[in-house]
Amino acid sequence: MAGIVVDTTIRHPATTKWYDRRQNVLVEFCIEDSKDVHVSFEEQKLIFRCHGGTDDHSFFNEISLFDKINPKESNYHRTDRSVHCVMRKGSAGMAWPRLTKEKSKLLWLSVDFTNWLDWEDASDNEFSNYDEFSSMMNKMGCDEELPELDGSDEESSDSDSEKLPDLE
Fold first, then answer.
1. Residue (of 29, 125, 135, 148) closest to 82 by Cα position
2. Residue 160: helix, strand or coil by DSSP?
3. For residue 68, which of 101, 112, 38, 20 has the smallest C-alpha distance?
4. In angstroms, how far apart are the furthest CA atoms of the chain?
5. What is the pLDDT of residue 53?
6. Higher-scoring residue by pLDDT: 142, 28
7. What's the pLDDT score for residue 116?
8. 26-42 as b/e, with b when 16 or more CB fall inside 10 Å?
9. How many other C-beta atoms can be found within 10 angstroms of the C-beta atom of residue 90?
10. How far apart are CA 48 and CA 39, in angstroms?
């Protein structure tokens, strides 16, 4: 009689952050020193598994996605600190209010507010891309020479530059 092999490996969900863009949904699995990384993109599912972290744990996440993605145009990149996934939306221009199909709160999943952009409310495409925004900020520079801020400009007529009376 053949024995049944049972996988007794304890799998932990990886701490995960995500944010939404007009054409993509970006997901970051926060695992340091990951190895044996496997990412599978399906039309409505993202599967992630790897080994890593300080204790070399086995990590596994299976996420039923809020909406469809294009698996062929989705990819991932591994760094020493995390695994970044870029998933191409099946319906570009539609905001995802959450990453998962279900509304349940998952302890290992959070919104990446550092990278979050409320692109839906943007009335102008100029602000939808950080590089374009940065370029615009650089163009707003002043051609005039800025005044010295150390108080050495004696010709200033600003009332704040007047000498204060001595305290008694």
1. 29
2. helix
3. 101
4. 102
5. 84
6. 28
7. 84
8. ebbbbbeebeebebebe
9. 15
10. 5
In whole angstroms, what is the distance from residue 51 CA to residue 66 CA? 26
Tell me what the mean pLDDT of segment 56-60 comes to.
93
Question: Token pair for residue 37?
Answer: 């990384």
Task: Determine contact, residues 21/96, Cβ cutoff 8 Å.
Answer: no
C-beta atoms surrounding 133 within 10 Å: 13
Instruction: Please enumerate in sequence order all residues whose Cβ is within 8 A of that of 36, keeping only pairs 6 or more positions apart, or say none.
Output: 49, 50, 51
Q: How many residues does the chain have?
A: 168
Place of tokens 């990951």: 34
| CB-neighbour burial class of residue 73 (10 A; exposed 0-12, middle 13-18, buried 19+) | middle
Query: Cβ-count burial of 13 within 10 angstroms (0-12 exposed, 13-18 middle, 19+ buried)?
Result: middle
Mean pLDDT of 27-52: 96
* Pairing relationship of beta strands 35-42 and 45-52 according to DSSP bridges: antiparallel
What is the model's pTM? 0.67
* Three-state secondary structure call for residue 161: helix
